[in-house]
């Protein structure tokens, strides 16, 4: 893909519009210019909310079969242009072309799941006569849309994470405003085009491109907005929660995901899964493997196999079919990871492979003996770095896993079902993957975490619950 995409305008209330100022979208691999998008202003953000009020009225009146048809037709549109979508994801972000194609497939699945869940937004009858004096009362509750959803999405899954917010919003009869990451806005704009082609009333969806510092506050604090759905970093999420006011808020704020490998595990499976989980998308993955705790009896064997497998990864041109890992999203992020690794090494950590940066590329890096006080232990690295540590058994592994102030996903490799269930009960996370790394998710499951990993759950059905309210109806007959 050498030419520019056509996604140069943003969508506000059904109209494709430009701004005086633009954001340059550059390929992080070689810093080449891909395209420009509008740098929206605070006024543009307020206009998007005003237009979304009209869209919310339209969306609420749409029948379930209309919502389902639009979502399925949009998925079909994406499928028809799947290579264009994949190449856009790969060019503007960090994913290899192979990884990008997988994201396009997941986007289609997310939209089709949203269509299916639209038919399942059901309430329940209520036995009002359970209290004396209410023998003549009958009733029920049903779900109604919150009206306007603001969705703020990150760079690492620039298509599917947009679909995870837009699909449930439309399925549940809401209007939605998407603020995509300023580094990767093109995929979101392509998806908006697909929705319009599929027949979505244009007022229902806005995609406002711009910097969070300029437009974020208006999109979050506006009193007409009924729900804010944010995926991103802890600092930004904390600030959004503070300023949002009395509205529904869901936050997916990342993690520092542990994996436990016990002596009875299938080591080949554990190595294969954990290497993939640590280094896919250049490690820029909220459920990517960051810490691995290995029982002492198999520690050396696991460590050797893991390092050898890591050294086979091919790092380079992300558009090549042979590449396993591309660059990070920008050079500043690669420098940050470099700094954290160097700090850990200065504190006593041993670098077993990697530990080198070239521009935006940071080699897949494996460490051991990482000090607990280091940022690499405590924070979300969000890069191609993993630490592997020896533990005496399951209890120590769980204690170490729970030390970080995050709790999104964890993985455990064991053939002992009792130990698996013990880990399920004791790990302070939103999801435990047995004989898989932490980096496993399907788009219909509840997805979210504990502690600093966020509030609420995504996954289509569960996002719909957060984008609706319950209304009680009671008849006195």
Automatic annotation (TrEMBL):
<dbReference type="GO" id="GO:0008911">
    <property type="term" value="F:lactaldehyde dehydrogenase (NAD+) activity"/>
</dbReference>
<feature type="domain" description="Aldehyde dehydrogenase">
    <location>
        <begin position="16"/>
        <end position="473"/>
    </location>
</feature>
<dbReference type="InterPro" id="IPR051020">
    <property type="entry name" value="ALDH-related_metabolic_enz"/>
</dbReference>
<dbReference type="InterPro" id="IPR015590">
    <property type="entry name" value="Aldehyde_DH_dom"/>
</dbReference>
<dbReference type="Pfam" id="PF00171">
    <property type="entry name" value="Aldedh"/>
</dbReference>
<protein>
    <recommendedName>
        <fullName>3-sulfolactaldehyde dehydrogenase</fullName>
        <ecNumber>1.2.1.97</ecNumber>
    </recommendedName>
</protein>
<comment type="function">
    <text>Part of the sulfo-TAL (or sulfo-SFT) pathway, a D-sulfoquinovose degradation pathway that produces sulfolactate (SL). Catalyzes the oxidation of 3-sulfolactaldehyde (SLA) to sulfolactate (SL).</text>
</comment>
<keyword id="KW-0560">Oxidoreductase</keyword>
<dbReference type="InterPro" id="IPR016161">
    <property type="entry name" value="Ald_DH/histidinol_DH"/>
</dbReference>
<dbReference type="InterPro" id="IPR016162">
    <property type="entry name" value="Ald_DH_N"/>
</dbReference>
<comment type="similarity">
    <text>Belongs to the aldehyde dehydrogenase family.</text>
</comment>
<dbReference type="InterPro" id="IPR016163">
    <property type="entry name" value="Ald_DH_C"/>
</dbReference>
